[in-house]
Each structure stands twice: as structure tokens, then as C-alpha cells.
Amino acid sequence: MKPFIKTILASAILLSSFSQTPLFAQWALVNSPYPGWVNDIDAFAGGYVCATYQGMYRSTDNAQSWAYFVPPGFSQEGVKKMEVSGTSVLLLTYSERLYFSSDSGFSFQEIETTNLPKPLVAYEICIYNQYVYLETIIALYRTSNLGAQWEKVSGQVRNLRQIDGKLYESSINKIRVSTNGGSIWTDLIVSGIDIQDYYVSGDTILLIQRNKLYTWRSVNGGQTWQQSALPNAYNSNFDYFLRYNQRLFLDVGYNILASDDMGATWFNFGNNQDFSYTRCLLTDNQIILRGSDYGIYRSLNGNPPFELSSKGLKAGYANTLRSINGNLYAPSFRGLYKLTVDEDSWENQMLNPYDSLLEVNDIIFSIGRLIIGNLHSDDNGQTWSPSNDGYTYKQFANANGSLVSYENSQCSFSNTNGQSWESGDFWFTVHGGGDFAMAFNCITDTMWGIGEAKRVMRSGNGGQTWVPQGDSLSFQMFDYPWFNYITKLDNRLVLEGSSDSTGHKLWVSDDGGITWTPKSPPSQTGYIVQSIYQNGIWITACSPGGVLISYDKGETWTPFNTGLLFDDASFIGLHKGEIWVTGVSGTYRRPLNDLVLGTSALEKPLSLNISPNPAVSALLIECKGIKGHLKIFDNLGRTVYSNNSFNDSTIIDVHQFPSGVYRAVVYNGNLHLEGNFIVIK
Predict the structure, then answer these.
(1) Domain assignment of residue 453, yes or no
(2) Domain check: are 394 and 500 in the same one?
(3) Cα(368)–Cα(372) distance, integer angstroms
(4) Is the backbone peptide bond immediately before 119 cis, with ω within 30 degrees of 0?
(5) Is residue 180 within 8 Å of residue 128, measured between CB atoms?
């Protein structure tokens, strides 16, 4: 912020000293829009444990409720694979780290992997005869001493499992078995099929063939094979076999098939239009499984219906968070959700039969119409219709009457309020953006982009025409750069990207893109995914990195992660005076006034007092002994209130002010006082 002769903040703290001001609150993890994001589930540590992108959740009340679980020795990170054998538990995390427990998962030790070939890409884990096995993209390895020494057992394998004292693995056209720990394999050949999953029980072997609506079955250990048709198989996206007592189950999309003769014949067991049953766990007296909505379901007798049992499981997260007409919407991988009135849970808006279109999405309200993905509703979400072209759009904005959709390197515009769309990428390249775009963003009705031509481009009509901004020669300092993010903070243009010579940088320009200055990025290990700018406060969501804020437009950064399970964020939204953030670590909220309230390190003889802060209906702005002008600016820098006869104090009605951060300025000659305040609706 440009300094004045005197700059004083009272209730609101001095913006230029924000980075030195302690932030006293923290993020609160809230209930997820959908039940969870469960990768695996098993029984250990005195209950049931499920693996999620956040880490592990444990249930000690027969899977009725779940709590976040970080046992001693385990690092707080996402878990993608779990293996249990007796009292031994093996975990594989998303950072390719291995953890081993010999006490049923109550404590863990990390297995050293530095001696393994790099890059380490792990697929499967297994416990067999006192060894820990690791299937990688290169080969099969094992260790018996927590990774002090690793032994290469064989070449590359796929779908490694330990079953009945033997090792099994499958490849494109065969399944193989090893009885000596993996050094020698015996082929059980099924010519010309692509095996997706397999099940072994004694001499009976069942195989799912990818993209086929039948299984292969052998009752003599793989010597001969027969096909077994699958009734009511709606698609070929099969998942895992599950055996409960003497009954075998198989998920075939939105249907569950069952077999009482070990796969010789199959019958329809049940279906549910809201979820399919996948990633199952067999227990002594019930079936616990993960549905396609990634929640936990259970059946006490092995028969439908399966009841939702995800209380406390907060692993699910939204793609975006949008406050529209007083409602908070959360478009997610599993559909559209809306925060309930009590703000304690989420309502599924049930977009069937269009849910499959919503794997990645955003929502916007435009001229009386709700638009999400490629769908639109003119009756406040009661009914939905697809757009004419069938595309699914990712992030929305309004730009001078044009509806804009954009993500990283793609931009589209609609002059029909989302009914039909046209590509803005073509016009971007025609008008000087280069052969391809790298990043787009919409700031205050203007689209900004950066492309292969290394020149910032802007469009005032939603991407239909583009104008070069600044001098492309200024980017000759970069060797084959890649830009992932562009934005505008008042008069400052900001780019984030990297190149071989410069590394990962934030580049800023205060002269319209003619000259650029490198700065440190908010996250040294990740990149900006999305950000918001509120009256001098820049809040970024970085993956990885979490939430980082700058009070000086990118010059310095302050971490804002206290309370996050781990530092990763993908979207930030504002709703009723609160900041909401979402990412793989969950969905969180905290008061917006955490950003602007505190105690200034500077004592001043004059003060601008603003109360209450935050304000709901009215606020008092007071500065004793001062006469002059008072102006209030919204987040876009627009004047929303003006009083040229300010004298000591005034009361302002803020009923018509939308939620957000506002800036109050009192000035008279050389005197200039500023304060930020929050409005909550």
C-alpha cells in the first residue's frame, strides 16, 4: 500500500505491518459436502480404519462413527494402500512413503526407501513370510529390516497379493503364482485378455476381463478356463470381488451381482441409484464398504439395504465454494451440494441423471439462471437442462455481459446465458497470444491471459477479442517458461510460473506489463490454484502449500494454515463474513475478520475507530476532533459511500452492502486515516 504522510489504523490494523501481526484464530474443519474420499478400509488398531486423502480415520463403535487417526510414528498425510496380516500393518502414502506396525496399528515406524531406484512410483504393497513387499513401476522389491536393505525379487509385476501362503500377480494376458517369495513364477495363462481384477480361493480362480461383461473361471488352479456371463451389467467399470460367508459379490456399475457357487453363475443382488458398492471389507458379522459417493456404508446381515455410516468422516471436499443469493453451494466430484440453514450439514441437490457430468465443475448465478458444469436451471435448481454443446465447463465469471468459463489453458464464452458456448482460445491466438494459452483469469469484468507468445493479453468482452498488454520483449529473459496463474491486484499485474533458468517465481509489473520484477512465490513447493483479493489483502490457495496471504501485493507472505490437517488448498470462497477453503485435506471455515483485526505495533495519537467490526446492519465510524471527507470503498475499489462533511463521527447503514472487506478513508489536507472493516450478511 502506498504510504501517506500519516496512516493510522485503529480497530483495523495497519496494512503495511500485517505480516508482523499474529493471527489469533485458526481454521475449523467442517462436515464435508459428501461423506468422504475413502481409498481403502480394513480392521486394525482396535476397530476399523479407512484410508483417505487426508490420512486415516478410525471407528471403535462398529463403524457407526469415525474420528481422525494419527497413531504414534505416522506422519500426517494421505494414505492410498493398507495391508493387514495378523498383527502386522503396512501403509503406503501418496508421497510414496511406507510405514510398518507390528502392534496391530497402534504405532508405526517408517520404512527407509532411499536405497530404491528413483523415481519411486509404488503400486502395491504386501506382507509375506516376515517380508514387506513393494511393487513399483520398475520391479518387485522386498525388505525384512525396515528398509535397511532392499532385495530385488523379480522384474515388474502387477496387482500383487498374498493369498493362502502364496504370491499372485496379474498382467495383460496371464495370472501368475509364486510359492517361493516371488523369485520364481508359474504362469496361469488365459490367452489374449486384459485382467482387471482377480479372486482366488483354493483351486478356484476368478478373473474380471477389462471392458467385457463376463468373468473367466478356473476350478483346477488355472489349468483350464471357462467364461461366466454377468447379468444386468450396466457398464464394464468393474471393481473388486467381495466374499461374505459362502456368497461372492461383484460390483458392475450401479448393480451388485452375487454368486453362491463361487462364480459359476451370477444373479442380481440389489442396486441403488445413488451409489454403487466398491472397495469392500469383509468382517465377522457385517459388510462394510465404500460407495461410489466415497462414503462408508454397512450391512449388519450381508443383505441390502446398506446404511450410510460416515458420521465424523470429513474426507470429502468440494471443487469450488460459491455464495449465491445467501446460499453456499459446493460443486464436488460427486454432484452439487448446498449448505443447510443450520450450517451443520449439506443437502445433495440431486442432479440425476446428469451427475456424471460433474466430476470437475463450478456454479454461477447469471440473469436469473443457475449454471453448473454444462447444465442450467431457471427455477432455482428444481430442474436442470444441458447446454447445446455438451461440454462441461470448469470455472465461471461474468465479463461485461458475457458469461465466461475458463481453466488454466482453456477459455470459452457464452452470449446466450449458458445455453451455448464458443471457444475464446482461437481469438486469443489470433490477436497475439501465441500458439496456445497457458493461464486465464477474470478480474472485474476483464479477462486476462498469458500464452506461448510470452505476452499478457486482456479481453473486455469475455474472450471474444483480445488486446496485447505490455511488451512481449520483456519476457525474453525466460527460456521456455510455463505460467500457471495470472491475476491483477489494483494496478499490479502478477504472473506465477517457472522456467529452467529462473526456477519457480512470482513476476510482478506495475507499469502495465512493460517491465517485470521477480518475487518469491507464496509456496516454495506448490503453485497457486485460486486466489481472492480484498482491499489490499491477497489470499491464495496453493497446492501444496495451503493458504498464504500477502498484505503488500506479493512482496511478502504469511502462512495462514493453523488448523488445516495439512497444508494444501485448491479454492477459497467468501460467505456471510467467513472465509471458506477446500482441498484434499477437507473443507474449512474461519471468520473473515481474522485478516483485519488485531493489535497494531504502532501507537498513534489519532485513531479511526470503527465499530462494531464485523458489522451486520449499522456501524459507527469515529475520529474525535477531525473534520473532513469520508469515503468507503468496496473490494473492487468502487465508492459505495461518500460524506464530504464528516465531523467527529457518523453512523452508516450497511444493510445494502454485500458481505466482504471494505475500506474507510477519512482525509483532510495532509491528514489521511484508513481502516478496514467487515460486513456480514
Answers:
(1) yes
(2) yes
(3) 13
(4) yes
(5) no
Claim to verify: residue 370 and residue 454 sit in the same structural domain: yes
- In this structure, are residues 47 and 59 in contact, taking their beta carbons and an 8 Å threshold? yes
Distance CA 184, CA 190 (A): 19
Give me the CATH number covering residue 365: 2.130.10.10
Residue count of the chain, please give it: 681
d(C-alpha 654, C-alpha 644), whole Å: 18
Pairing mode of beta strands 226-229, 267-271:
unpaired
Residues 508 and 630 in one domain: no
Model confidence band, residue 299 (pLDDT cutoffs 50, 70, 90) = confident
Pure H helices in 497-574: none
Which CATH number goes with the domain that contains 627? 2.60.40.3080
Same-domain pairing of 420 and 519: yes
Question: What 8-state DSSP symbol labels residue 430?
Answer: I
Cell of 157: 509385476
Q: What is the pLDDT of residues 322-357, one digit of tens each?
A: 998 889 999 887 778 899 988 888 888 877 655 555
Instruction: State pLDDT tens for residues 125-155.
Output: 999 999 999 999 999 999 999 999 999 999 9
Strands (E), 424-477: 437-443, 446-451, 456-459, 467-469
Out of 189, 222, 256, a domain closes at: 189
- Write the DSSP string, 182-216: SSS-EEEE-TT--EEEEEEETTEEEEEETT-SEEE
What is the total count of domains within the chain?
3
Beta-sheet strand order (sheet of 161-163): 161-163, 166-170, 174-178, 186-189
DSSP lists the bridge partners of residue 178 as: 167
Cell 477459497 belongs to which residue? 572
Identify which of 143, 144, 142, 163 has the alpha carbon closest to the alpha carbon of residue 153: 142
**In terms of residue numbers, what domain contains 379?**
327-525
3-state secondary structure of 15: helix
Residue 572 pLDDT grade (very low, low, confident, very high; cuts 50, 70, 90): very high
